[in-house]
Amino acid sequence: MIETLTGFPADTVAVRCSGFISKADYDQVLVPAVEQTFKANERVRFYYEVAPDYSGFSPGAALEDFWVGMRHLTRWKRIAVVTDVPWMRQMVHMFGFLWPAATKVFAIAEAAEARAWLIEEA
C-alpha cells in the first residue's frame, strides 16, 4: 500500500509504502500525486518512506517506479529515501549519484532529519 503524507511544503510529494506494493498503488496514489505536484511546480521534492512492514513489490510496480522517476528526470529538486531495508539503502548509495537531484538515504529512526534535509534550500 502507498499512502500520501501531509505536513510537507506544496512542492513536495511525500509517501509511505507499507506491506506489498502493486502497480495499482502507483496508478491510484503515487502517479496522480506526482503529476499534480509537477503541474503546480517547476521542480519537486520527493520524500519516500518505506515502513518496517514492507514486504515487496510487484514487477509492474517496479517498472512504474522507474518510469515515475524518469518522466521528470531533470525536474526533481531533492529526494529523501527513508528505509531500513538493506537492499534499498544499498541501491540509493550505489546509484543515487546518477540522479540530477540531490539524493540521500536515511534510516527510519532518522525520519525527522530526512524531512528537515528535504525542505532545506539547495
Task: Tell me about this structure.
With 122 residues, the chain is α/β, with parallel strands linked by helices. It has a single domain, classed as Transcription Regulator spoIIAA (2-Layer Sandwich). The chain contains four helices and seven strands. It has a five-stranded mixed beta sheet, with helices on both faces. A two-stranded parallel sheet has the order 3-5. Helix 3 links the parallel strand 6 and strand 7. The mean pLDDT is 92.
Query: Order of SSEs, N→C?
Result: EEEHEEHEHEH
Counting copies of identical and different chains, the oligomeric state is single chain
Globular, elongated, flat, extended or rod-shaped: what is the shape? globular
Q: In percent, how helical is the residue content?
A: 40-55%
N-to-C CA distance:
31 Å
Q: Within the CATH hierarchy, at the fold level, what is the topology?
A: Transcription Regulator spoIIAA
CA radius of gyration is 13 Å
Per DSSP, the total helix count is: 4
Low-confidence stretches: none
Strand order of the largest sheet: 1-2-4-6-7
CATH class categorisation: Alpha Beta
Mean of pLDDT: 92
Q: In percent, how much strand structure appears in the residues?
A: 25-35%
Class per helix and strand makeup: alpha/beta
Structural domains: how many: 1
Beta strand count: 7
Reported for the largest beta sheet, the result is: 5 strands, mixed
CATH architecture descriptor text:
2-Layer Sandwich
